[in-house]
Specification:
Length: 239
C-alpha cells in the first residue's frame, strides 16, 4: 500500500516551494514514486502485461485508444469493444486516475482539474523558469542528458536548429502559428502523431512560430505524458 505519511510530508513540502522550483519536478517525482512504494505503478504494469498476453488482439496502443474513448464518452468500434472486454480497460483507466490524483497531491493541487487548467498552471511554472534562465539560472530536468547537449551555448544551438529546419522544410504554404495555447498544443500533437520532429523542425512547419516557444510547449506535453523525447532529440507522440 502507499506510504500515506510520506505522501503527506511530500505534499506539505511541495506546497511551500517557489514556482520555479516546482518546474524542476524530477526530484519530487522520484520521491513520490518512493512514497507510493511502486504499488500503483506495479499494478498498472501487471495489468497491461497480462492483457497483452491474454490475446493477440490487445496492444498497448489499442488499450489506450479505448481508454481515451472511455474518457470522452465516445462509442467503441466492435474491435475496441473486444479489447475493452479482454483488457478490462475500465480498470486501466481507474489505475491512471489514481496515479493522476497522487501526482496532483504532490503538486499541492486540488483534483480533478480541467485539462486547460493543468496546462495553464504548467505554463505559469515554465514562465517563471524562463525568467530564471534569462538571469543565468538553469534548472535542468535531466542534467546528465541535457547539459552535454544544450548547456554550452543554448541560444545559438536553438537558432541553428530552427535555421536548418527552415531550409529542409517543404516550400508549400505553411499554416499560421495558432494564436492561443490550446490550439498550439493540438497542432503540435497532430504533427507528432505522424512523425518524429525536433522543436526547430516543428517551428518550421508554421508561419510565425519560434523554436524556443515550441520547445516550451513540448516540455509541457512531456510532463503531461502526451509526447516522448527520443535519444536523437526528436519528439513524437506517446503511444
Amino acid at each position: 500500500m502507499p506510504n500515506v505519511a510520506a505522501l503527506q510530508a511530500l505534499a506539505d513540502r511541495w506546497a511551500g516551494v517557489q514556482a520555479a522550483e516546482r518546474a524542476n519536478f524530477q526530484p519530487y517525482l522520484i520521491e513520490l514514486c518512493e512514497a507510493l512504494d511502486g504499488e500503483v505503478a506495479e499494478r498498472l504494469d501487471a495489468h497491461r502485461k497480462a492483457a497483452i498476453e491474454r490475446d493477440e488482439v490487445v496492444t498497448m496502443t489499442g488499450m489506450y485508444n479505448v481508454v481515451e474513448k472511455l474518457r470522452c464518452g465516445e462509442a467503441l468500434t466492435p474491435k475496441e469493444r473486444k479489447i475493452h472486454e479482454i483488457a478490462a480497460c475500465g480498470v486501466l483507466k481507474d489505475l491512471h486516475d489514481e496515479l493522476d490524483a497522487l501526482v496532483a497531491k504532490a503538486y499541492g493541487w486540488e483534483w480533478p482539474l480541467e485539462r486547460e487548467v493543468i496546462l495553464e498552471r504548467l505554463v505559469a511554472l515554465h514562465d517563471e523558469r524562463v525568467r530564471e534562465e534569462k538571469a543565468g539560472k538553469v534548472r535542468w530536468l535531466r542534467p546528465d542528458y541535457q547539459i552535454p547537449r544544450f548547456g554550452k551555448d543554448l541560444p545559438a544551438a536553438g537558432l541553428g536548429l530552427a535555421e536548418r529546419a527552415a531550409k529542409a522544410a517543404p516550400k508549400a504554404k505553411r499554416p499560421a502559428w495558432p494564436a492561443d495555447l490550446i490550439s498550439r498544443i493540438g497542432a503540435i500533437k497532430r504533427l507528432l502523431a505522424e512523425d518524429a520532429l525536433t522543436a526547430g523542425e516543428l517551428a518550421a512547419r508554421f508561419t510565425g512560430a519560434k523554436a524556443d516557444l515550441v520547445r516550451r510547449h513540448l516540455e509541457i506535453l512531456l510532463v503531461m505524458g502526451d509526447v516522448r523525447e527520443n535519444p536523437d532529440g526528436r519528439y513524437q507522440g506517446a503511444a
